[in-house]
Amino acid sequence: PGVPSGRSVMGNQASTAGFSSERVVDVASNVMEAFGPLYVQAYAAATVRSLQEAHTRAAEGGQLPDALKLELMAPPIATEPLEKGWMVKLGAIKASWRRRFFVATNEADNFVVYYFERDEHADTPTRKRGAILPCGLRVRALRDEADRKLYGEHALCLDPGDGRRAWHLRCDSEAERSKWRAVLKYASLHAQPPLSADAVEAAAFCDAYERLRRRLGLWGWYRIDRCEPEQLTQLVCQLCRDRILHQALARLDAAGGAASKDGARVRQAALGELDRVVGAVVASAWQACKEAAAGRAESLREAATSNLPGAVKDLATGKEALRERVSRVLASAAAEATGPGLDHVVNAFLRPLYKAHKAVVQLFWAHMNAILDRGLKERELRAFFRNCRWQRGELLPAFRRVRAVTRGELPEDEAEARSLLQDMTTTWAELIELLQGVTLWEVERVFEESLIRQATWGVYCFVDAVETGPEWLDPAAALRQVTRAMAGDAVKRARRDMRDVLRLIYSPAVRRKAMRHPEVRDALAGSAVSAVAFRHRELQPPASEADEAAAALALDAAASAASGAAAAGAGATGTAAAAAAGTSTAASSADGIAPTSVGGSTRKAEKAVFDRTAAAAKATRQQFADAAWALDELIDATVDAVVESSQGLRITDTLGRLGKLPGSLGI
Q1: Which tens digit of pLDDT belongs to each residue from 248-296?
Q2: Which of 80, 92, 140, 465 allows an S-S link to 478, with CB 3.0 to 4.6 Å?
Q3: What three-state secondary structure class fits 168?
Q4: Rounded distance, CA 180 to CA 167, Å?
Q5: 593: burial class by Cβ within 10 Å (0-12, 13-18, 19+)?
Q6: How many degrees, rounded to 5, is the angle at CA 39 between CA 35 and CA 43?
Q7: Per DSSP, what are the bridge partners of residue 141?
Q8: How buried is residue 186: exposed, middle or buried, by Cβ count under 10 Å (0-12/13-18/19+)?
Q9: How far apart are CA 337 and CA 103, in angstroms?
Q10: Is 333 exposed, middle or buried (0-12, 13-18, 19+ CB in 10 A)?
Q11: pLDDT tens for residues 89-113?
């Protein structure tokens, strides 16, 4: 619809897969009009939160209780490459295979994968031929007969799962493919989205994007895995496909057109045109969002800096008042939520967790002694550190202790298997019920990440002790010293792991039960926390709401200009010219943002935007007035208290044996 007969779309003959550019621009403009005020508000909130956290840390002196302090030092962010090697890459524009030298970087470079024409260029990033951003990519080996014929043997596919480019790589052998597949999957899982380097801007975008999805009725799981304009473009394209293109594409599929080459080209052209038009609107409006937020940043910081000391003090008073009012209800809710299931959960996880941390200390001691016996080579230390970090084998014996419960993967040694599960008092099906919606995979991830940190911190501290320690401290003595510290850390880490898992299971249930109680709701509504959690009037400039209104108007004008530019460049579609002429008056937002008429009086529009933005700001204050974050702190503390009273002595006795490990190792 919207493509006149005989016109073409991006060089292809028009068909039922065409669409109205005007409707697309309307949807994109409406979404960005809704996003603009949300982003401005989220930016203000993120700025205040960052300043408040800094002030709180300074007030508390950054000190932790002795019981929570770890002896080992955290290693710096790794900078050495994850992997290097040759692969063959399929080009995106010219479908030809080119041999390239790939370098998968580490966490310091956010796991970006660069490729070069020659291996000697790898040390000069400016000479790269391109880069792969692995965040969100699904890595799979192409093993089907059809894929092998098309892409060759030992091929990999890095698929984003949407309209972005899918990367096809071919390795020289099956061993090479397995190695690169593991590296790329690790990079895909741990890479962060390429958001703004400014922490406040990134936090504001994530907050505003989540609230935008809720406002648009888009529920369910999602992941931010690209830069801000691309993430918004993807969201708008999803809405357009659902609201505008679905009927046309359905007719094309029903007619069998999608299976033909011409039909595939029409579909691809329509989706490409959709992405181009939406991208033009989003890029312009996103720039207006950033300018609107940055314009008020300095005045916001000044107001927040002068008011935060009093706000932090009032906040502590408010939290204490809230604690006094709801502590009895929370204790009752926690006792009811944990119930008899707490004993079964601790029985299932405590012994495997203890044995896993014990195994890490023993494995570290054995591997490091073997490295010392071979002459303490830096290459071997780096390999051990990297393999621990990637879960490549050295720590698998420790992981298997945890996976005996989370996956049912019992060790071949029957005595060891019986020992791991001897305290378990439920079946796996009953255990899953007791987890109250938390998956065994989530529990496993908490435990394994702690085990990885324990081993990698040990390697780093050993290297630091050897390089910076006194002259009399030889490598063997340094290893003994670090292993003793690891054993002490293992006790604290294991306690934290058990606490974190029990919080993960029971805190949401306690919160649900507590929020049904009228006393808790009344306490939240009248708590002093509500007044100071986000001091909207004191921590923001007096004209903040007017600024938001002006920002909304600027967004409206930017969206109109962008829609005109997008339509002017879309000469392939018959309705593009109409979109250019008709979108000077922005379409009304589905979320209540008032339209602005360029040709008419703007006073009425300004008042409408002001009123609606003020209502949005009031809703934001109400969200902070709920004091959900303060309630969550109290709930976590209450769950900890219930666990401590019920299982604290047992957990302490079991994990306390970790501290005695150095004696059993002969240290």
Answers
A1: 777 766 665 545 566 677 777 777 888 888 989 999 999 998 888 888 7
A2: 465
A3: strand
A4: 13
A5: buried
A6: 180
A7: 156
A8: buried
A9: 50
A10: buried
A11: 998 877 889 999 999 998 888 899 9
